[in-house]
């Protein structure tokens, strides 16, 4: 819950900043009449809309689980990110359209030297806010906040491109640079909008996060307890800031209920120590089978049927299986 409140505060700051920068960029356009500045300003409209949508989605995602949403409301962040990516693509399309119009009907540029300083200030502010939002979003597993941060960084990069373009126009006197940079910006913005949509759809469809899964497996291998004889059917899913872990943990068949529960507690504590408290677990315990003895590392086990042969390292290939492991 603390992470959700932090996400909301950062997103509120990002949205407020987007409104201020939106106004500044239109001031810069009216000062310069430079097409790429208009393109940058139009993209800022998307920033404002995306910021407001992101703010609402984080508010919804911060709500606790209820009867109708037993896994919480975290997927609202994925929907927000998908909408934001769509808006980014629309902004890129508008920029390309304006570039084509201006190619055939060039406009007169003026007051470029003053406009460049206004744009530089917006780029610096955008980059600082984007880095903060993206870092906290990754730390708190918030796709909505991470997308907002990425969007601000993209916006700052395009603004720097506009500033470079203005400098080249001032140096060369060739106004056609304006259109060329605007086209490049439009294509770049559309591509990044596609990437955000792709990631959000992956979250909505519960696509496996292989990087996160590998990180979990690595931590389990590093700090593995001897009475965790085997692990299989592992699933790691993210619901906004919440990480959900399902698995089957094999423990000695002679453990009583309290001993098996203690083994599960050790397992969940290890993952929480690494990935934070925003983790939900459904751990099913299985008793070991006679064929498990060959991969069991418990020493002096009175119930052992066959000698220990090999410690089985857990990896992505064998840990996702829904069958208990045994040596062939």
Give a description of the structure.
The structure is a single chain. The chain has 328 residues and is mainly α. The protein folds into 2 domains: 2-204, Alpha-lytic protease prodomain-like, CATH 1.20.1510; 210-319, Alpha-Beta Plaits (2-Layer Sandwich), CATH 3.30.70.1350. Helices cover 64% and strands 9% of the residues. It contains 9 helices and 3 strands, in the order αααααααββαβα. It has helices at 2-32, 35-61, 76-104, 112-139, 143-172, 176-204, 210-222, 257-275, 316-319, and strands spanning 230-239, 242-251, 279-287. A 3-stranded mixed β-sheet has the order 1-2-3, with helices on one face. The mean pLDDT is 81.
Keywords:
Alpha-Beta Plaits; elongated; mainly alpha; Alpha-lytic protease prodomain-like; 328 residues; three-stranded mixed β-sheet
Helix-strand blueprint:
Elements lengths: L1 H31 L2 H27 L14 H29 L7 H28 L3 H30 L3 H29 L5 H13 L7 E10 L2 E10 L5 H19 L3 E9 L28 H4 L9
Parallel strand pairs: 2-3
Antiparallel strand pairs: 1-2
Give the structural class.
mainly alpha
- The CATH superfamily of the largest domain is known as Cation efflux protein transmembrane domain
Order of helices and strands: HHHHHHHEEHEH
**How far is the first residue's CA from the last residue's CA?**
46 Å
Shape: elongated
Instruction: Kindly estimate the percentage of residues that lie in beta strands according to DSSP.
Output: 5-15%
Helix content: 55-70%
Q: What is the level 1 CATH name of the largest domain?
A: Mainly Alpha
Detail the poorly predicted runs: none
For this structure, the CATH topology of the largest domain is Alpha-lytic protease prodomain-like
Give the helix tally.
Answer: 9
Q: Taking all residues together, what is the mean pLDDT?
A: 81
Enumerate the strands of the largest sheet in spatial order, edge to edge or round the barrel.
1-2-3
Number of domains: 2
**Largest sheet descriptor:** 3 strands, mixed
Based on the structure given, which CATH architecture of the largest domain is correct? Up-down Bundle
**What Rg do the Cα atoms give?**
27 Å
Oligomer: single chain
* Number of E-state strands: 3
């Amino acid at each position: 819950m603390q992470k959700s409140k932090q996400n909301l505060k950062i997103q509120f700051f990002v949205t407020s900043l987007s409104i201020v920068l939106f106004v500044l960029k239109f001031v810069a356009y009216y000062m310069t009449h430079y097409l790429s500045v208009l393109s940058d300003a139009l993209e800022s409209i998307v920033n404002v809309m995306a910021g407001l949508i992101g703010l609402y989605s984080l508010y919804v995602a911060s709500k606790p689980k209820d009867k109708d949403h037993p896994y919480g409301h975290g997927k609202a962040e994925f929907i927000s990110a998908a909408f934001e990516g769509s808006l980014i693509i629309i902004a890129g399309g508008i920029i390309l359209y304006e570039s084509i119009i201006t190619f055939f009907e060039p406009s007169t540029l003026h007051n470029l030297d003053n406009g460049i300083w206004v744009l530089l200030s917006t780029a610096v502010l955008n980059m600082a806010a984007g880095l903060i939002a993206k870092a906290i979003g990754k730390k708190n597993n918030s796709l909505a906040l991470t997308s907002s941060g990425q969007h601000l960084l993209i916006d700052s990069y395009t603004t720097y491109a506009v500033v470079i373009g203005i400098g080249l126009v001032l140096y060369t006197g060739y106004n056609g640079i304006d259109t060329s940079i605007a086209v490049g910006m439009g294509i770049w913005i559309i591509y990044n909008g596609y990437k955000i949509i792709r990631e959000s759809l992956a979250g909505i469809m519960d696509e496996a996060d292989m990087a996160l899964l590998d990180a979990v497996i690595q931590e389990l291998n590093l700090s593995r307890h001897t009475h965790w004889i085997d692990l299989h059917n592992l699933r790691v899913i993210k619901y906004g800031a919440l990480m959900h872990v399902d698995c089957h943990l094999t423990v000695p068949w002679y453990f009583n209920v309290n001993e098996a529960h203690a083994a599960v507690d050790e397992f969940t504590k290890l993952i929480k120590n690494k990935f934070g408290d925003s983790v939900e677990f459904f751990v099913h315990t299985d008793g070991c089978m006679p064929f498990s003895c060959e991969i069991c590392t418990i020493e002096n086990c009175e119930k052992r049927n066959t000698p220990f042969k090999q410690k089985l390292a857990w990896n992505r290939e064998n840990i996702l299986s829904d069958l208990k492991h045994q040596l062939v």
